[in-house]
Amino acid sequence: MSRCLGKRPARHDCRTYRLDPVLTVFPVAPYARDWSQNVPYQMRGNDRSGCWAFAAHGALVATWTKAAQGLAVLSTGKVLANYAAVTGFDPATGANDHGTILLDG
C-alpha cells in the first residue's frame, strides 16, 4: 500500500441523506461537549491496512458506549473482519487492501 490511506473516490447516490435541509431549521448550534475524554482510542489495524472507515466505526462505538452505559471496545480482529467482509481484504496476506467506498461500508 503506497499511502492510499484507505479512502476511495466518492460514489454519489441520490438516496444519500443530506443534512442541509435539516440544518436550516436550527437557529443556533447546540452546546458543544467533548465526549472523548477517557476513551482508549487505538489504531485498530489502520496503521497496517486501509481499514480507516471500520477503525473509525470502532472509535465511534467506544465513544458512544463510554458516554452512555459502559465502554465497549471492538477488537482489532473484529475491525479487520468487518473490513474483510465488505471489501474482500485478506487479513492474513494483506491482499485486496484497496480501501473502502463509504456507501459500501
Describe the structure.
With 105 residues, the chain is an all-alpha fold. It has a domain at 41-105. 31% of the residues lie in helices and 0% in strands. It has 3 helices and no strands. The protein has helices at 20-23, 52-68, 76-87. The two termini are 20 Å apart. The model has no long low-confidence stretch (mean pLDDT 89). It comes from Gluconobacter aidae. This is Peptidase C1A papain C-terminal domain-containing protein.
List keywords for this structure.
105 residues, 0% strand, mainly alpha
Question: How many distinct helices?
Answer: 3
Average predicted local confidence, pLDDT: 89
For the largest beta-sheet, the strand count, sense and barrel status come to: none
Gyration radius, in Å: 16 Å
Kindly report how far apart the N and C termini lie: 20 Å
